[in-house]
Amino acid sequence: MIALEDAWALLLDLVVPLPVERIPPEQAHGRWLAEPLVAARTQPAADLSAMDGYAIAGPGPWCIVGESRCGAPFGAPLGDGEAVRISTGAVIPTGADRVLIQENATREGERLSGETPEPGTWVRPRGMDFAQGDTLLPAGTRFGPAQIALALSAAAADVSTHRSPRVAVLDCGDELVDGSTPATNGAMLAAMMAGLPCEVIRVGPVPDDREALAAALAQCGGCDLVVTSGGASVGDHDLIRPALEEWGADLAFWRMAIRPGKPLLVARRGATLVLGLPGNPVSAFVTGFLFALPALRRMLGAPEPLPAAVALPCIADLPPGGERGEFLRAIHRSDGLEPIMRRDSSLLGQLARADALIWRPPHCPKAKAGTDVPAYWLGNGAIA
């Protein structure tokens, strides 16, 4: 059996980022930049007012000579003693260098008075945010709502990202074919991976038959990632491994020193990565979180594709670790993580209540309540 850290290293060696493409910023949500984002314009392009009020030139009192509003700037320079009514975000006319805000101004007809503010008061100077040619985001930055807005503000017609992966989720098992059991694993894994910018298709359900499995795998040849659940262990009806061999895939590694998730299988066929996950739903979820999501992040160019552990207090005693490392489902409480001690890998009810996975390394000592333990937030990964 392979240790978790060694399996992660092997997985990342098997996966490379997908080819680079340029797409509009609005389509880049959830992706990672393959190249830096460089500003094509200066923002703001002119001095702007930060408040509603009056752009003024020189000391007061002032004579109001016009108005500057967004989309309709005042078209002439101001001389000392002149002012224009101005809106938030409007261009400050040449000659003015400060804004007397509306709350501090007294207006009588076209005459304006008030205490003269210091130069630069309530002014957003040209280039305050960035200048043309500035590197705004480095390669490896993940694109979200703020990054999309920044790219549009910088007049970026497109951004450089890695192509979205194509994923096939293969449901297999006689019990799924005859309808006696719903295809929960396939739906769960497809939803998990759909949290990343990828195209997910469902294949099957496929019976526990080697030829049927090989035929189903043949439908996945154009995919970057194929994920199966069930059939990866050593039982009489666990046929994923021989079916993969018949399909022409090469086994990279098999069986993990973790609980749940021991029967995990990883293989490659050309450019296609195959993950054979266990059939028990909790095991499928945990190994999907630990391996399918990092593989997809790696394909998308994420500089740190593996889930990041955080240290959080556990509010119950934990026994010492065994031969295999263990992931305990846990519920987040105000004072820390409450481990779910019923560990059967079929218990979806327990899994659905969990907010995090507590990692118990092999042979770790027992932990008293209140001890910090490494944990992985499920909301930051499995719902990526």
Main sheet: strand order? 7-4-6-5-9-8
Q: Segments where pLDDT lies below 50 for 5+ residues?
A: none
Summed over residues and divided by their number, the pLDDT gives a mean of 92
Strands, total number: 24
Structural category is alpha+beta
What is the helix tally? 8
In this structure, how is the largest beta sheet organized? 6 strands, mixed
**Given the C-alpha coordinates, what overall shape results?**
elongated
Helix content: 10-25%
Radius of gyration: 30 Å
- CA distance, first residue to last residue: 29 Å
Strand content bin:
25-35%
What key phrases describe this protein's structure?
single chain, alpha+beta, six-stranded mixed β-sheet, 8 helices, 24 strands
Topology:
Elements: H1 4-14, E1 20-23, E2 37-38, E3 48-49, E4 53-56, E5 62-68, E6 82-86, E7 98-101, E8 106-108, E9 111-113, E10 123-124, E11 135-137, H2 145-153, E12 159-162, E13 166-172, H3 174-177, H4 184-193, E14 199-206, H5 210-218, E15 225-229, H6 240-247, E16 250-254, E17 258-259, E18 265-269, E19 272-277, H7 281-299, E20 310-313, E21 325-333, E22 336-339, H8 348-353, E23 356-360, E24 372-377
Parallel strand pairs: 5-6, 13-14, 13-15, 15-19, 17-21
Antiparallel strand pairs: 1-12, 2-11, 3-10, 4-6, 4-7, 5-9, 8-9, 16-18, 18-19, 20-24, 21-22, 21-23, 23-24
Report on the architecture of this protein:
Helix content is 20%, strand content 28%. It has helices at residues 4-14, 145-153, 174-177, 184-193, 210-218, 240-247, 281-299, 348-353; strands spanning 20-23, 37-38, 48-49, 53-56, 62-68, 82-86, 98-101, 106-108, 111-113, 123-124, 135-137, 159-162, 166-172, 199-206, 225-229, 250-254, 258-259, 265-269, 272-277, 310-313, 325-333, 336-339, 356-360, 372-377. Strand 18 (265-269) and strand 19 form a beta hairpin. The mean pLDDT is 92.
